[in-house]
Structure formats: C-alpha cells, structure tokens
Amino acid sequence: MKELNELIEHIKNYSGKNIKIMEVCGTHTHEIFRQGIRNILPSNITLISGPGCPVCVTPNSFIDEAIALALENNCTITTFGDLVRVPGSQMSLAEARAKGAKINVVYSPLDAENYAKEHPDEQVVFLSVGFETTVPANALSVLHAKKDGLDNYSILTSNKTMDNAYAALKDSADAFLYPGHVSVITGTAIYDRLKEEGISGVVCGFTSHEILSAICAIIDNVETGKPFFLNCYPSVVKPEGNPAALKIIHDMMKNCDATWRGLGVIKNSGLELNDEYANFDARKKYNLRKIEGKQNPACRCGEILQGKCRPDECPCFGKNCTPEHPIGACMVSSEGSCSAFYKYGANNSL
User: Fold this and answer.
1) What confidence tens digit (pLDDT) does each residue in 329-350 have?
2) 259 - beta bridge partners?
3) Do 173 and 18 touch, CB atoms closer than 8 A?
4) What's the predicted TM-score (pTM) here?
5) How far is residue 9 from each of residues 2, 17, 233, 301, measured CA to CA in Å?
6) pLDDT in tens, 225-266
7) What is the sign of the dihedral through the CA atoms of 191, 192, 193 and 198?
8) Which of 244, 284, 289, 314 shows the greatest Cβ crowding within 10 Å of its Cβ?
C-alpha cells in the first residue's frame, strides 16, 4: 500500500490525457473540499460533483406535494431537517409552517412512526427521500406501522437508485467515484454491469488516503483505454452488499420512473411501495393531485448536478443564494456541492 505522500506525488506527476472524474456522493464532495484534495490536482485532472446528494436531486414538485398534504389535507409532515429549507415552486416547508402547516423534524423514520402511534388524531406523513442507504429504514417504518395497526401513517416517496443515473451521466465524466455508503447496501454487481456498458469507476472510501488511492486507480486504468471497475473500499463494501437490507427493499418496494433535479425523468430510477403496502403510500392514500414543479430560473442547481458548471459560476452563488438564504437545494443540504464550495472555497489545502 502506497503512503500518502507517494499517492500525492503520483497524482501531481500525472501527464496523460485530460480526465474528468465525477464524485456522486455528497460526503465525498465535502471530504474532498475539507481535505484540500482539489488543490493538488494537475490541470489535466478535473473533479466535478454529481447528483449524489439526495436532498439536492429531490425536485421542487416533491416539496410542493408535501406542502399540499400539509395545507390542503391537514397532514402532519415529518421530515429530516435539511428538507425543511429546500425551496419548492412557491415556498419551502419552513414557509408553509408559517402559514399554519404542521412540520415536525425527526431523526429517523421510526421516530415518525412513533409520533403517529402517539398522536392517533393526526394524519402523519414521513418524507421518504434518499438512495439505497436510507430506503430500508424508511420501509421498516411502514412495516412497523402495519404491525401496530396504524391507519394514520404513510410515506411520501422520493427514493432513488443510482444505477440508471450513472447511465444518464456517462458522457459527463471519464470515470466515477462510486459512493461508499450506497455500495455497502447494493454490493458491486451493479458496477460490473456498468463496466459492460462502457462506464468506468471505482468504489471509494472517505479518508484522504482512500480518496487519493481511488484517484490513482482511475489515473492508471484510464490510460488503458478500456472500461474498468475497481473496489477501492473492500474492507467495507462486499460483492454481495447487505442481503438483509436488499431483501427489505425487494419485498416492500418496486421500481418506478423518477424525476431528478437537473436530470429530468430517469426511467426505473425510483422506488415506491409495492401494492401490498399501498395504504401507506401518501400519494394513493390522499389521491394526491399531479403537481408540476417550477424551478427558479436564476438557480443553476440542475447544471451543477450534471457537472456542467461550478457553483461559483452561478450568478446567485454567495450573493442572494447563501446557506442562510438558499435559492437552490445544493446550497441547503449539508452534502450539497454549493454548500461545500461556499464553506471551504478553493483555497483550502491538504
């Protein structure tokens, strides 16, 4: 195993063709900034941030649906804190709260289910967002609600899977830094399939050594001119993934088309409850009307999520869009690329 200084020198001395590497995990985005890794890259290696933050890729229409459930159906919305400040088409959940919506921040889906159990007079909806990492816990809250006989609990899903997103973004980068957390659940078969489709990447951990090792692996393999996949996080990510978590997803969820902020609709990239649990699907339970979200035309979050522009190239960045007053989701989320760029800037060092 190479020492850290050897990895740094290997990267600094790279003199091959230009390489674009897309990290698609929000934690990777922040760790790369925090550790100053971008500062050691030569001009022929470019790191770009992709759609790996679940809050960032959640479309405005989802926030609009949640607000409609709160204000029109008198539901109590339970959610993680980041989503409260994400702008919808007209307002955020925080602004809806000021108009009388009941919005409760919880720390887990089971907290939301417990709240419903303790407040049988309220119709409780949990906002179920995230990738494969969070889907099992979201689904388990429904399983608990069914076992507890609750008829006042449901989830509004905006859960997504990453495999079809990689295919949609294959022309945006030469290789991906695949997310460690998601890969713990999914395993690595997905990446072997992507390699067969001509898509390259490595599964990556989160320490400076692990990230730099992954970049070095990409450098060395891009030179071969052939698609590749490497698991650079084998201590945690196993080929079979997490069978128990995958069984929960398989037993309780089904694939559906999903809208991604900046990417539009990606076929079969979403997850929703299957027919057995339809009574816990908020859209079906409340016959929720179809809502077409409207984006703020000044916000370039969509282009940022596709790697088409950097956060500081957005005219709103750092001006009328800040973490205190966000215009787009990428500035709201603690995993968003705009948030990372704003917090760390470009002058941090390793």
Assistant:
1) 888 887 888 988 888 875 444 4
2) 265
3) no
4) 0.91
5) 11, 17, 21, 34
6) 999 999 999 999 999 999 999 999 999 999 999 998 878 899
7) positive
8) 314
